[in-house]
Amino acid sequence: PAPPTVATEAEGLRLHLSSITSTGYKGVHADRSRFRAEARVGGKQVYLGTFDTAVEAAVAYARAVGEYQPPAPPTVATEAEGLRLHLSSITSTGYKGVHADRSRFRAEARVGGKQVYLGTFDTAVEAAVAYARAVEEAA
After folding, report:
1. What's the whole-model pTM score?
2. Taking a C-beta distance cutoff of 8 angstroms, is the pair 9, 68 a contact?
């Protein structure tokens, strides 16, 4: 049978995934047609309840062990050096055309129908400024 599809987050909590349990969640076990959640709290195994779905049980486990959703991504500047920076919800840097490159940031832009390398920078904002300049000059 195919492995179950598992959610990684629910109710603002990061769920603990497991490749060992049949449910796909740490601390969650199938119990007849329902799902049992247990967690080790203060060195003791604690029964957390029986739930209708594996996700509900995984949420109970996440609450018991105190795991919350990862912190929000860092805030990004919307303007720098008099330029409007191009924000992106897709890239990990938060800026269009800016990508993490080891410990630095690479900027690329589409200019005249071609992808153009703009450079590698120490900060994401510096790379975003280079992208904004290239897009402004091309317009």
Report:
1. 0.48
2. no
